[in-house]
Amino acid sequence: MGLAVPAYKSRLDAAGRFLSEISWSRTNRGACNYRVEDEMTPAGWIILAVVNVPVYFGIGWVLFRTWDDFWEAIRFWFTPDLWSLFKGEYWDDCWAEMKLGFWVLLSIGCVILEAHLIEKIMG
């Protein structure tokens, strides 16, 4: 019969191996994909979102062209589709909501893409 290894010892060994992989990945990028220091902080996300305000305006200008079109899209977003159907504005409602959705997705996508590029360049 062999000696029994206490359960806490195997857990500590596993934790030690995990921590050594993390510290080793700082010198060798291919060793471990999890790197604590590469995560973007909430302050970084906020700063990036604020710095991108001109980009949001640019995307909005391409999609809406005028402020009236933008506010009409907001109005249609809050108007139920059935109400727009009864008023005969259903397809205008769909088109305006689609443009507004594209604007939101493209704005969020720009921030995520820029954060990814910053992490690639800095990390």
Regarding quaternary structure, what we see is single chain
Structural class: mainly alpha
**Overall pLDDT confidence:** 80
* Overall geometry: elongated
Order of helices and strands: HHHHHH
* Overall radius of gyration: 25 Å
Sheet with the most strands? none
Question: Roughly what fraction of the amino acids lie in strands?
Answer: under 5%
C-alpha termini separation: 51 Å
Helix content: over 70%
Q: In the residues, how many domains can be counted?
A: 2
Number of extended strands:
0
Low-confidence stretches: 18-27
The total count of helices amounts to: 6
Quick description:
The chain is an all-alpha fold and 123 residues long. It folds into two domains: 1-39, no CATH class; 40-122. It has six helices and no strands.
Can you walk me through this structure?
- The protein is mainly α and about 120 residues long.
- It folds into two domains: about 1-40, no CATH class; about 40-120.
- The protein has six helices and no strands.
- The chain has helices at about 5-25, 40-50, 55-65, 65-80, 80-85, 90-120.
- Helix 3 (about 55-65) packs antiparallel against helix 6 (about 90-120), helix 4 packs across helix 6 and helix 5 crosses helix 6.
- The longest helix has about 35 residues, at about 90-120.
- It is elongated, with a radius of gyration of 25 Å.
- The termini are far apart.
- About 5% of the residues are buried.
- The model is unreliable at about 20-25 (pLDDT under 50).
